[in-house]
Amino acid sequence: MRTGSQIIRVAFTYIGTIVGAGFASGQEILQFFTRYGWMATLTIALSSLMFVWIGIKLMMMAHDLKAESYEDLNAVLFGAKIGRWISLFTMIVLFGITTVMLAGGGTVFEEQLHLSYQTGLLVTLVLSYLVLSRGIGAIMTVNSIVVPIMLLFSLVIVIYTWNSPASGNWLRITSDYPLSKIWFAPFLYTAFNLAMAQAVLVPMGAAIQNRSVLYWGGLIGGIGIGLLLLSAHFALSAQMPGIAQFEIPMGNIINRLGSAPQIAYLLVIYGEIFTTFIADAYGLSLQLQQRVKLHPKLILISILTLSYVVSQIGFKALLSALYPLFGAISMVWLVLMIWRNRSRTL
């Protein structure tokens, strides 16, 4: 029973780390998958396989190395010199994502709860400190609460869409995009998310003593991510092409279901922002602990404070400025990860 519980906690933490605000809004799925028509079903399957394969590999390698942070893993993967540069890039990216997620939390409070942007930032920072000061176990517990709500919400969306006249669009809608762009999208999407997920997958892999827990947790987590992608694609496809005009496409679907689903959706969006925020802030703090000789709580407070300062720029501005750069760096990471380990077996 204890082993089964650990597997579920690992799987839920993996899912919660990958799934962020862009996923919950539907915009991520629309941009990387749904707009490419029925072939998105195939590219989602490809992306899911990579989430299973690379996710398990990351955790297993971290377990074997007893890595303190992803910097230790990158040093082994790519050599000390290149690995240090990759870790430095990752640290910059993690901080960027942290500020974007914090800004997203403030935006939820401002636009959905009609409270001030600053209130959203401060509430998120306080909750994050309470979780992060307790370590990886607390992060896993938070994900064990948020992810089941997320999965239930996705099931409701699928049931709602099932009887729609256009429910079969996910298997028949066509696209004018070139094949090269369609098949590049899942690699870019997976690379970006896995490069960021190593911030939690590496310390979690090192902390879990049982290798089978990591294997099954990674397998279930990767499959879970794939099912969430597929359910969102299924719902969005049924509303194509009109749904593409909305900034929060999933929100447009939810608004038709009544007040209770709208409240649940709000919780899901904020929960996904929060889990991504604490995951990236935790990974960033671990790496900084290896670079500077300061008390861990002081490092954590410094990260949260600096994130608050940078988040004043705003959610949209940060998103549009930083994500293209992050995507390019992540593709390099994925290519090197696969190339350096093409002969490794689990």
From TrEMBL:
Query: What are the protein's UniProt keywords?
Result: Membrane, Transmembrane, Transmembrane helix
Record-given protein name: Membrane protein YkvI
Q: Does the keyword Cytoplasm apply?
A: no
**InterPro entries reported in the protein's UniProt record:** YkvI-like
Q: Does the keyword Lyase apply?
A: no
Q: Which domain of life is it from?
A: Bacteria
According to the record, the segments passing through the membrane are: 7-24, 36-56, 85-109, 115-132, 144-162, 182-201, 213-236, 263-286, 298-315, 321-339
